[in-house]
Amino acid sequence: MNAEQHLTLEEISFHIILHAGNARSSAMEALQAAKKKQFETAEEKMAEAEKEVHQAHHYQTQLLQKEASGDAQNPTILLIHAQDHLMNAMTVKELAQEIIEIHQNK
Question: Burial letters for 44-81: b for 16+ Cβ neighbours within 10 Å, e otherwise?
Fold first, then answer.
């Protein structure tokens, strides 16, 4: 077992919040770049956003695997907050991609 598998629910929640926040920020930076017609920068920022969402999802999957193996934990407000951040980041990322494509087609 690696050290990640021994993280507490609180630690996992903070990792989700961190990576989801980074993803949202990168997606918003991509939008700003697209508005300035800096599409290469926008693409780079969207790639960063995807990487960060993937990382957040990795930590979420740890919780799902623990639960599936019988190690279910009671959700905390912090975990709910983390999940909210992740869902928000995913939505912003998807919308940013659509808006960037609209800017490119102008």
Answer: ebbebbeebbebbbebbebbeebeeeeeeeeeeeebee
pLDDT in tens, the chain (106 residues): 466 668 899 999 999 999 999 999 999 999 999 999 999 999 999 999 999 999 999 999 999 988 899 988 889 999 999 999 999 999 999 999 999 999 999 7
- pTM summary value: 0.90
- How many Å apart are CA 92 and CA 86, to the nearest integer? 10
DSSP, res 7: -
User: Alpha-carbon distance 45 to 54, whole Å?
Assistant: 14
Catalytic sites, residue numbers: 81
